[in-house]
Amino acid sequence: MTLEFHKLTQQIEQMGSYLAAREDEAADKLELAWQIMEAYSSEEFLPLILERVADALAKDAGYRGARPIDEPIMNTYPPAQLPPSATILATDGSQIAPNPHGAAFYYLINTGTIVLHHGSGEPPEVICEPFLYYEDEHLRLPDRGPITGATVAARRTVAEMSALAEQTWLRRGEPRPLVALLDNPLLPFGIGKEVPERDELQNIYLSAISRLLETRALLAGYTDRPRSRYVVGLLHLLSLEPENVNRTTLATDGRLEGLEDKALFHYLLRPGERSALFVQMSPLNKEFKSRAGETHEIAFFYLNTAAPGQAPTLARVEIPMWVAEDRRAIAELQALLYHQCHQVASRYPYVLTRAHELALIKSDEARQLNVIIEVAMARYGVAAEESEKQLGKAAVGRRRTRFEVH
Predict the structure, then answer these.
(1) Do 237 and 368 belong to one domain?
(2) Are 283 and 309 in contact (CB under 8 A)?
(3) Which of 56, 57, 222, 371 has the fewest CB atoms lying closer than 10 Å?
């Protein structure tokens, strides 16, 4: 059975109409957001803004928006001059999920790290580290059930940060600034409450960040095409009277509901500029700060990576507080990120593109790994048989099969 596109025609038309109406509505919300932002844009309003955020937190009103650090919320900042030398590391990861219908029950996590010696003329270093997990202790959860995809994804998140910390530590004596990049937010929302070993994994993750702190690396998490609404949440808070701040009024963004931060900064940031610095007031960020100290609280800014004359291209960059406190370091990080985004046509950092290529496990590689595992199993006298379901799916994938019912 193939996808019957003719049955989707009407739904696709309805989708187009819906998206057009949403854009018209977003324009009205953006105008209102601009009015609020401009009203509080002066530096003299910073103490009041911080007071409003503190009041929302004191009331336990469920505030999840942004908190400015010490910069006016509408300010923009150009990058510093590009440093003549720097050491830039980037890490990404991928996985082969466990397949209960395969010949063997296992999973694999592969991390790829690139080390770029900016300004040296030397070729980049590349490091790939695949790890195969097949023992019972790796494949069973504490409740004795089989491992879940969410747990494997959480372990991959930890493996990425651990690999980045390890490779950065080995290069702590190399030219500065020393930049360590992840192709993810620094707050690991993937290690959720549905992961049984959440606390253990978070401790390992935080330990890796602490190791990066010891190197004084400029750690950053890069999010392309961000969909977050933290600053919009702040503007919604500022639009409310203090006596009306409660869990009900902060459950949504009110008249700004559905508007995203990137809509604000799309028009505000010129090429290469960053926004003011903010802190995301989430329970996970609060947990980070309480577990590891103020240095580990995560801040963020928005960056326009487009070239002059191009349409804005927005990214959200997360940094730990030890980086946020050093404005010269932020300006250098900003300059290096912007430069990296202009090494490829996509306006995405070259080092993160390469790290993804290194980590990616292609489908033919996954099939080849299965064959190698099956051969090894046969050599040791272990039966390697796929389930009937897997065999049936494989047959459908190879050719169109006629199934007869008797």
Answers:
(1) no
(2) no
(3) 371
Nearest to 181 by CA among 8, 377, 353, 398: 353
The per-residue pLDDT for range 344-373, each reduced to its tens digit, is 888 999 999 999 999 999 999 999 999 999
Is residue 297 situated within a structural domain?
Answer: yes
Kindly state whether residues 226 and 322 are assigned to the same domain: yes
Stated pTM of the model:
0.92
150 contacts: CB under 8 Å, gap ≥ 6 = 190, 192, 194, 195
CA distance 219 to 321: 10
Tell whether 388 and 288 lie within a shared domain: no
> How far apart, in whole angstroms, are the C-alpha atoms of residue 392 and residue 385?
13
CA nearest neighbour of 198 among 166, 158, 159 = 158
Counting the structural domains of the chain, the total is 2
Instruction: Enter the DSSP assignment of 315.
Output: E
44, with CB counted inside 10 A (0-12, 13-18, 19+), is: exposed
- Bridging pattern class, strands 125-133 and 107-118: antiparallel
Q: Are 230 and 66 in contact (CB under 8 A)?
A: yes
CA 401 – CA 260 distance, rounded (Å):
47
Residues 300 and 262: beta-carbon distance below 8 Å? no
